[in-house]
Amino acid sequence: MQTLQDIHKRQKKVLFFLLALFVLGWGFTDFKQVFAGLILGSLFGLYNFWILIRRMERFDRTITEGKGRASLGTAMRFASGVAVAAIAISLPEHFDLVGAVIGLMIPYILLVADRILFHTKHY
Questions:
Q1: pLDDT tens for each residue of 49-83
Q2: CB–CB of 19/39 below 8 Å?
Q3: Helices (H), the chain
């Protein structure tokens, strides 16, 4: 069984590779706003994924110890998504809103793809 930290570590590697491709796209193409939006969204998406992993571990500890209530940090991740949209809307000459929203979802798309590949290999 893989731990959340193993999954997060693998996701970071893939996402950093994608970020490097986005930076190259930003530097060498005429689609600077789209790639800047993808970079912005991906960075916030990585932050959201890190929050989710951290909160899931805390949630697991809280449930196993039988203490109080636990939260998965949904409001914090939602606020982060609103911040990405606000930045992209307030600076349209630098960031593309659609690219930023797609970038925000990239870590979750990678997570689903990773889980599908994991389960097809091991089951």
A1: 999 888 888 888 888 888 777 677 788 889 999 99
A2: yes
A3: 4-28, 32-65, 74-90, 97-122
